[in-house]
Amino acid sequence: MIDWQAIIKEHGPAVWQTAYRLLGNHTDAADCFQEAFVSALAVSRRQHVQNFSALLTRLATARAIDQLRRRFRRPDCDRDLDDSSAVEDEAPCPAEQAQQRELADRVRRLLDQLPAQEAQAFCLRYLNDMSYQQIAGALGISTNAAGVLLHRAKARLRELFELSAGQVERG
Amino acid sequence: MSEKEDIFEKAVESLRRQEVPPGPPREVIDATLAKLAEGRDAPAVADVGNSASLRLWPRAFVSFGRIAAAAVVLIAAGYVAGRWSAPRPPDVEQLRAAIEPVIRQNLLNETRQYVQSSLANGYLQVKEELSEQYRQDMGRVAIQTLAASNTITNDLLSRLLDSISTVQVTDRQRFAAALEQVESNRLRDRSQLSSAFATFAVRTEDELMRTKKDVAQVLSYTGLPSGRPDSATPHEFQNSDNPDERNKK
Predict the structure, then answer these.
(1) Domains present along chain A, CATH in parentheses
(2) If both were cysteines, with which of A63, B120, B185, B239 could A35 make a disulfide (CB 3.0 to 4.6 Å apart)?
């Protein structure tokens, strides 16, 4: 019998951080949080879970990316859902805060255009600081495959970022 | 490129370093626990299915065999029905005899339309070319005619000017000759008139002298006193026998 209350108490903050960092607002992060734990419950029914931390992080990342896809494919996707301004930031000035929010939002939009596994690998590596071995274990692939996946994800994301930067400069 | 890479790295870093409020909130934890409780209480469909399949696999195998047999029977029946209901192969000669006149007619019509359209296009093209050539020829002939008429007109004008100048010169010469003739006639008439006047004057004087003498003789014959001095004779009747003196007078 799994003590989900203890698991939430232990791994909840990490899941919340992962969800909130990717989604940028409280409502979506809460939905993502719940979906991640419900998915973890389903997984725990099918198989024995040894590392709940990695599983929950991967599930939170996957659900957050799904929510990003849904958000940016809605007709009103230009609406600013970011309520991170409520958070006290350490940025020195409002202009820099706005620039950082703009950059973060652009990365969120571009993550939507990556394949799901590449996006998950990228987030696990560069947002959650997981090692290649941890990513490979979480995604169920080999370490080399995780490296290739990360390389492709970063290259494609950089390419998309440059393209979007060019469009912003032209537009 | 490096600047873009820096911006990309900066964007990833911004996302990574984005401040996250402490959480999850209590209500989110409660809602999640409620959902997990619901999920725990709900029957696990996959597990139930797995256990059922483990228990009932011989029945499932029998059911699958029945379904497979029924599928084979249905396929065979369909094949037979298809063979029976399939149309016979068509008679090629009959089909050809039926289709050939139509094809010929269609081909003829299409060929006729093609030829007519080609002829129409060719006619229009030839007409346009001839019109263009006609316009060019007319323009060239008009230019040549204009140039020739200009040349002839200039020639005639030059001849006319020459003849006019010649006639004017001739007229001037004749007029000058006539003026010279008139002047010479005038001078000759003047000289003749002056000599005639002089002769008339000389003769008149001579006649007056002779008349004076005659008057004196007549007076002497009639006895008029002779002591009358000669001084009584008018001076103007005195005449000299010298022609030079008469000329001086």
Answers:
(1) 4-76+92-170 (1.20.140.160)
(2) A63
